[in-house]
Amino acid sequence: MVANCAPTPKDYRNMGIEISRLRRQFGTFVALDDVSLSIGDGEFVAVLGPSGSGKTSLLRILAGLDQPDSGSVFRDGQNLLALDARRRGVGLVFQHYALFPHMTVAQNVAFGLRVRPWRLRPKAQMIKTAVEELLCKVELEGLAGRYPSQLSGGQRQRVALARALAIEPRLLLLDEPFGALDAQVRVTLRGWLREFHRSLGITSLFVTHDQDEALEMADRVVVMNRGRIEQVGTPEQVYRQPATPFVSRFIARGQSLPGEVRGQHLHLFGHAWRIENPAVVDAHEVAVHVRPEDIVPAVTPGDGLKAQLLSLRHVAGSVRASLRVENWDQPLEAHWSERDWARYSGATDDGLGIHLQAVTVFAADREGRVHMRSTVHPPSASAPVAVGPWRRIEA
Ligand SMILES: Nc1ncnc2c1ncn2[C@@H]1O[C@H](COP(=O)(O)OP(=O)(O)OP(=O)(O)O)[C@@H](O)[C@H]1O
């Protein structure tokens, strides 16, 4: 829980940010390509993408550490790009704790206030009070006199956060703040930061390449790939309704299946389902994906698609299986609960039967642009473990 420290700083003003058509090129390499994004007052937005997708480039431009080649950024009607970095009211927290090793925790936190121009610099007593309040907020009250080398990684990142907050930022930018921490500390700090954001409500942009981190923490997730935004949505939207095959693979671990649309039907593993959506039927090309949790074991022996069990791992209450479906050479990953797996006892050396509970069809036009996504469910998808039998329309 985040400590309830009084008094709450009054100057955390929350402003919306309007990013429009940003482009940043390094030589011939395009790091940001036509990036537009609206961030609401007090929102916690995660920017998620693989390495090199442009996340840090975007953050650096917002922080004033770099300028775009074109595009604009406005905050409450004010052109942010025209302002010097120090006048943007931006707090920064990076992956590698950039704390000053020769300064105590309190001195580190006070740094942003002490280096203010003389006229804007608070009096020594006010700085002392502000530092005490900030250390209370990040739950490090007792550690003011320690040096960074005497802190754990998680504590150092909280000092970095307190230091970023000392200038009373209007926008908080966090670039992989937990990147250098071990897995358990990361998980603890995730919940802590989420709660912390709720208590302060500062508009925040959080860069990560960790899907779970983004989905767990953010109000909205921005998925980036090769310098472009592929999708912006709530964690549930990007997970349940991925806009592109990339988002499906990256967020929902969607796996390609050898499906085709012919006539009015999706043909897959010798079965066919009727497609109701004409935009999918008329597609130039389709990609068919299935998520690991949508591959379920068939309870009745002999039912479903025949599959070989390549491996089975028991990981913290879930079962992860690697399967090879008949007539398809790509292994498929399936995730089941231990309970569902226990109810299924049909796996033999010859294999097991599986059902696909839902598959997603992405329809692309001649230029390769995805113009429609449709999720196809077998008729009895509500059954708890096994679904089916598949509606066999034609052999
Ligand atoms: N100053 C620069 N000069 C040349 N190329 C650059 C420069 N800064 C970034 N790039 C390139 O732009 C691309 C995007 O980099 P960026 O740091 O924004 O990616 P990222 O999504 O933050 O990646 P990571 O998760 O690995 O930090 C990368 O291919 C990178 O090599």
UniProtKB/TrEMBL annotation:
- Write the record's keywords in alphabetical order, separated by commas: ATP-binding, Nucleotide-binding, Sulfate transport, Translocase, Transport
What's one GO MF term for it?
Answer: ATP binding
- Chain's gene name: cysA
Task: Determine the domain of life of the protein's source.
Answer: Bacteria
The ABC transporter domain covers which part of the protein? 17-251
Question: Which PANTHER family does the entry link to?
Answer: SPERMIDINE/PUTRESCINE IMPORT ATP-BINDING PROTEIN POTA, SPERMIDINE_PUTRESCINE IMPORT ATP-BINDING PROTEIN POTA
Name the chain's protein: Sulfate/thiosulfate import ATP-binding protein CysA
